[in-house]
Write a structure and sequence with these properties.
The complex is a heterodimer of chains A (166) and B (389).
Chain A (H helix, E strand, L loop, with lengths): L32 H12 L4 E4 L6 E2 L5 E2 L4 E2 L2 E4 L4 E9 L11 E8 L6 E5 L7 H7 L5 E6 L10 E6 L3
Antiparallel strand pairs in A: 1-2, 1-5, 3-4, 6-7, 6-9, 7-8, 9-10
Chain B lengths: L4 E8 L15 H16 L8 E5 L25 E4 L5 H15 L4 E6 L9 H6 L13 H16 L3 H15 L13 H6 L2 E3 L2 E2 L11 E7 H7 L4 E10 L13 H14 L4 H4 L2 E3 L6 H9 L8 H6 L16 H4 L4 H16 L12 E8 L5 E8 L3
Parallel strand pairs in B: 2-3, 2-4, 9-10
Antiparallel strand pairs in B: 1-7, 1-8, 4-7, 5-6, 8-11, 10-11
Helix pairs in contact in B: 2-13
Classes of the chains: A mainly beta (166), B alpha/beta (389).
Bound molecules: zinc ion (ZN).
Protein name (chain A): Zn-ribbon domain-containing OB-fold protein
Pfam family, one (chain A): zf-ChsH2
InterPro entries (chain A): ChsH2_C, ChsH2_Znr, NA-bd_OB-fold, Thioester_dehydratase-like
Chain lengths: 166, 389
């Protein structure tokens, strides 16, 4: 089989005489708006908030300012049950910048009766490799949040989700 | 006023430029000059006659927000617009759509669509790709590979497709890539070799995911009068359309591509396609993560939902099957950059011109191309090409 260059090899290391490295160091600070501010305030208090559409009744967790189906502003806040269902998941076995030490599991989780999913980590499952993991985790697995002791109004105030003990 | 629109030229940068982006030595300007010149020569049209250009890329990879700067090499006059198109992995297809609409309207007669070697200039592509997700919520948990893995894993659960099925599809693409001088990966790999490659992100092994590639493509799109004037075998654009999902991936279905099904239903209705498997002779779909190709068979109506495994096991989409799919080697083997989304279209065009070299499917008259883009398929793009109008 054809050998491919290892992902860790830096582009500057190859054909260096043809490369002109430069660095683009830019800082940004996003305005998050009122709905996100309120959601993150809830997270600090270990509460999960969502918003409902006045027209179709859909619930959005995390909250969405506008129901994209109806194109109306959502107006009703609800605190939802701290219970989720896995829609899909993946375990990552390679290291990527800005993400945890592998292996770790990322899942799309439907929280309470939300119409949309929240992406988050799942932990608390012992597995040696993917074969063992797929025996233990499925579409439909019920999960609950594990809160961080120190919370600062961030999506990672939930450390991860883990399967509900039956 | 609406006129028929045809593709009369396709050009790529040099075969050697289709390589790991780290091996690439040519400047963006050099690659653009080669691809555009090859496309214009192929079309037998002078640069002077071009009256609109579409530059397609994903901005973050280019290290500047003046991404379209490379098209200066066209030597255009003052009155030629350069339009920048960025719809993630569908940017090339969107560029063809813009060109098609401009020319159909009568506004312009000759357009060049250019797909950039986007990744040339990044040191690491992943951190740039990661900016594609919502920063407050989703970016904390994913990079591009998870965006490919989440629907792939969900699809396995609902469809019964196996790792072996994915490896079969990948092996088909590697066999095809080995016939394509413009493929980055151009050696065959067996199912066993693919299943032996390291697991990156369940269920995606390294050999089931695209590499980060260099290489560029260009296409010349013209009005009906010019098309019949410059060549005997112009390829007509029967239908071309695009669709968008929400930016937030929380809205997605994580086990196939329902938005693509909606788009294909619409496109087929407009183009009078009743049975795509029967009516198309060749298709190119966007498969940077190989399970996508199977989800796309279903969303593009080649089979019912959940049934793609049978097409794979029966070889229906292989070279000698009823509908050969990705005979270029697909995004998996050819090029993973924005060139890739234009190449899906340019490869179908070459097939219909009968000029696809060793990858030619004999007698291809009608073909489909598709591309997928941005965070977890925010965009889909489709075109139907035909030798007759
Ligand atoms: Zn609504």
């Amino acid at each position: 089989m054809a050998d491919e260059l290892d992902p860790s090899v830096q582009t500057d290391a190859i054909n260096a005489e043809y490369k002109y490295p430069f660095h683009w160091d830019l800082d940004f600070s996003l305005n998050i708006g009122e709905d996100n501010r309120k959601f993150f305030e809830g997270m600090e208090e270990k509460r999960i908030l969502g918003k409902k559409c006045p027209d179709c009744g859909a619930t959005f967790v995390p909250p969405q300012a506008v129901c994209v189906e109806c194109y109306v502003e959502t107006d009703e806040w609800v605190e939802v049950e701290q219970h989720g269902v896995v829609e899909s998941y993946t375990a990552c076995f390679f290291e990527f910048e800005g993400l945890p030490e592998p292996p770790y599991i990322t899942a799309a989780i439907r929280v309470a009766d939300s119409d949309i999913c929240m992406l988050h980590f799942i932990d608390g499952i012992e597995y040696e490799d993917h074969d063992e993991l797929v025996e233990k985790l499925h579409k439909g697995t019920e999960v609950e949040p594990v809160w961080a002791d120190e919370r600062e109004g961030h999506i990672r105030d939930i450390k991860h989700w883990e399967p509900v003990e039956k | 006023m609406s006129r028929d629109v045809a593709v009369v030229g396709v050009g790529y940068s040099e075969p050697e430029s289709f390589t790991d982006y780290r091996f690439s030595t040519q400047s963006k300007e050099e690659q653009a000059f080669t691809a555009v010149t090859n496309a214009l020569d192929h079309a037998d049209i002078d640069a002077d006659d071009v009256d609109a250009t579409m530059f397609c890329t994903v901005d973050g990879f280019e290290g500047t927000f003046r991404v379209e700067r490379t098209l200066e090499v066209l030597g255009l006059g003052n009155d030629v617009p350069v339009l920048s198109v960025n719809t993630g992995g569908t940017a090339g297809g969107s560029g063809v759509k813009v060109a098609h609409e401009y020319i159909a309207s009568g506004k312009y007669d000759v357009a060049v669509v250019y797909g950039s070697p986007s990744f040339d200039s990044v040191v690491e592509a992943q951190p740039v790709m990661n900016t594609n997700a919502d920063p407050l919520f989703e970016r904390n948990f994913v990079t591009a590979i998870q965006m490919g893995a989440l629907p792939s894993s969900g699809y396995m659960e609902i469809s019964g497709a196996t790792e072996e099925d994915f490896a079969e599809v990948a092996a088909k693409n590697y066999r095809a890539g080995a016939r394509n001088p413009y493929a980055h990966r151009n050696e065959e790999r067996t199912v066993e070799e693919i299943l032996d490659s390291p697991m990156v992100c369940w269920p995606l092994r390294r050999a089931m995911t695209c590499p980060v590639s260099s290489g560029s493509a260009a296409m010349v799109v013209v009005s009906e009068d010019i098309a019949t004037d410059v060549r005997d075998n112009p390829v007509w654009i029967d239908e071309i359309d695009s669709t968008s999902n929400t930016f937030w991936t929380g809205y997605r279905t994580y086990d196939w591509f329902p938005k693509l099904k909606e788009l294909s239903d619409q496109v087929y209705e407009n183009a009078d396609i009743d049975d795509p498997l029967e009516e198309f002779d060749v298709a190119e779909t966007f498969n940077p993560y190989i399970p996508f190709e199977m989800m796309e068979y279903e969303a593009l109506g080649f089979c019912e939902k959940g049934e793609a495994k049978h097409l794979v096991r029966d070889g229906v989409t292989d070279r000698d099957g009823e509908l050969p799919v990705n005979m270029s080697g697909g995004t998996l083997c050819t090029n993973s950059g924005i060139c890739a989304s234009l190449s899906r279209h340019s490869e179908v065009v070459l097939q219909l011109m009968g000029e696809a070299g060793d990858r030619q499917v004999e007698g291809a008259k009608k073909g489909l191309s598709h591309s997928w883009g941005a965070n977890l398929g925010q965009f889909h793009q489709m075109a139907i090409f035909s030798t007759e109008r």
